[in-house]
Amino acid sequence: MGASTCLNAASALAQTQTPSAAATQQETDNPAQLLEGEQLEFEAQQLAYDNESDTVTARGDVILRGEDGSVRADQIVWDRGSGQILATGNIRFVDDRGNQLYTESLELNDKFEAGAMDDLLLALRAGGRLAARSGGRGEDGTVVLTDAAYTACAVTAEDGCAKNPSWRVTADRVTFDPDENRVMFKGAMLELFGARILPLPGLSLRTDGGAESGFLVPDLRITEVNGLELSGDYYWRISDNQDLSLGASVFTSVAPMARGQWRHLTEKGAYQVTGFATVSSRVADFTGVPTTESDPRGYLFANGRFQFSPEWSLTGSLRVASDRTFLRRYDLSRDDRLRSTINLERIDDDSYFSLAGWATQTLRINAEQGQIPVAIPALDYRKRIDEPVLGGKFELQANTLGLIRNDGQDTQRAFAGARWDLRKLTGLGQVVTFTGLLRGDVYHTQNSLSTQTEIYRGNEGWTGRGIATAAMDVEWPFVGEAFGGTQVLTPRVQIVASPKIRNLAVPNEDARAIDLEDSNLFALNRFPGYDRVEDGARVTWGIDWSLTKPGWRVKTTVGQSYRLDDQREVFPDGTGLSEKVSDFVGRTEVRYRDYLQFTHRFRLDKDNLAIRRNEIDATIGSQRTYFEVGYLRLNRDIQTVEDLQDREEFRVAARVAFNRNWSAFGSGVFNLTGADEDPTFAPDGFEPIRTRLGVAYQDDCIEMGLTWRRDFITAGDAERGNTFQLFFALRNLGFQ
């Protein structure tokens, strides 16, 4: 049925693209009177009326319009007495929902409800096509098709000729309910490239693009630890604003795993809850000699957002795993920590308020959970003053944070501050920004000796400090022509001064990962958080240069800072900021259309120009064929702080398209860190972390492929090994 029906449908579709002429010949004295008071409108080359039979006959590019749709055909005969409409020849019928029916013969009533038809093609508005040998309307208003087929693929090629779809669902009987926007199949069978591969009992779908209850196509995977895995799910569309998915995975080497997902859209927001549960062996003790136990295991993930008003909102998430290796063993996630959060926010044009809290579960094998803090509460409030103060913008801020640990240091912090900014443009084109900042901090800490790194502890008990910062920033852009494009050269100088600050008297919880780079070169405080503040006086210089020409975009920046006094106690050696003269930092970006993207970030030692940071990210190619490479080298030689160890990593990925729809792809992550750079890191010099290879097919309505992945790191019962996965997705059917 498919080839001939698609050919007829394609011909009908092509013919409907020719505009029809209005009636040019009338075979009645006054045809307008025939339609007076009726709800139907005709356009045709010929229009005739038979008084005896009370019928209207229209011929030649006929268009019949009503309140519930329209019909285009070679000929239409309308029996005004019975209300029956018979259309013949190259028919296109469009109903009030936008669905289009193509056939050669069609019966309608004056309410535009279709009756008997043969060799038809139904193009659904939400996508997808139904073809059938015959069809008709049932007493309940549904359209019943026999010997039918459905596909979401195009049935015509670019040249307008018919083509066979990549996949289709054939059925003995198909029922289309236009009121419910639902298509139901009886005796459905999935065909892939002409081969019948899978029965689909109880299959149904919606024509308005909405989801429909039913079974999803199974997922097939083979892993080193769990063996062959077959996963299946049932999707239950409870209502338009809530649904439930229930599924299970069956393994050849371990017990089955159950899962479920609940999603709910309310008047104020939406939330979802996902859970996994099983029983399997796990490593219960990673210290000394590992022990293995068989226990219930699982993972719970929930998140949501609620908007109570244009200003007020509440967001939250919950992520909890039964143990540290469950997610990796079952390939659910590679995160090394799970963070649960809650945040109440109020945002308007001039203020911001946040009351938040979070807890973190570590999944790192050697980390101590008792050292991981719980943050309650974390409050942040900012208020921008509408009226200018001394010509500039004035902003107030208040912040509190409480960190609680079971086996570590507890810290509470509160501060209040104000910031003033004035931005001016001089007559010579210089952009000058003046900034002033005042802040007062209060800290309280307990059990500080449990923190191993001394400079992170702070004083036991209550501690206060004051912060004052003044800055002036001058940018002077020069614009001109160069290399067939436009270049912009912008020298920049910044002066920042702060009195001595009691940095080491307070604990450091949020400003540990300090490293000079291009992104923080001109920051008032190069530390990433609030607990450490850069004091003293410094001068920072930088030069930005950019070139824009057709297809090309080049940007580069380089800079350095000079401090008037030493700050060796607050900046560890190796960060590039511990001496009076900082290291050189910079970034270069090159882009050519959407074909080439290249970014290089660096930090050079001020004394010998040794590379302390070398980071490269490059992509070349199109969406279908491309090559990506990434390289990171941190050579800071910092041995006193565990947060700033050296690292070296290489990443590569590629995809090559061949034929029209096929492609091969691969990727790899490789650790190049040596034991001399980080004695605590397991790999020594070179070790693959994971690699992936695969082949995929993709066209306008199907995506499928086979992937091989190898993990090289063992973490407890999440052992290293190979994973093979077959993925499969069909457009419009919601298959995973």
From TrEMBL:
Main location: membrane
Domain LptD C-terminal: 297-662
Localization in the cell: Cell outer membrane
Keywords: Cell outer membrane, Membrane, Signal
GO cellular component labels: cell outer membrane; transporter complex
Biological-process GO terms, alphabetical: Gram-negative-bacterium-type cell outer membrane assembly; lipopolysaccharide transport
Function in brief: Involved in the assembly of lipopolysaccharide (LPS) at the surface of the outer membrane.
Family: Belongs to the LptD family.
Complexes and interactors: Component of the lipopolysaccharide transport and assembly complex.
Name this polypeptide is given: LPS-assembly protein LptD
